[in-house]
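ESCALATION

Customer reports they have been waiting on this structure for their group meeting. Please prioritize. Original submission:
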Amino acid sequence: LHHQPHQRMKAHIERFNIGKTHLFLLAKGSLLNLAAGAGPHGIDLFDHYTAVMLLGIAWMFDGIPDNILPGLQLYPAHLEREIAELSIKTHSKS
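Update from on-call: job pushed to the front of the queue and completed.
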């Protein structure tokens, strides 16, 4: 992609010209929290989001319990506790 004509529009925003099409790449294609902005601690903002997503996916692949019916579900409380404990443990080392 970076072999295409491109320019930096703003911090974390690049515009690529591909033929008659313009493509805007945010944060070099990395995860980006649009609501939080791009401060110096941006990576910290996604720690919890990533943990929620990955632990939830792992929970599903490990085998959803038989008592769970099809449909919209609340996020498992034991996973929320695990994320909170990991967060406290990680951030208390800082």
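Sent to customer with the following note: The beta strands are 6-10, 13-18, 21-26.
Escalation resolved.
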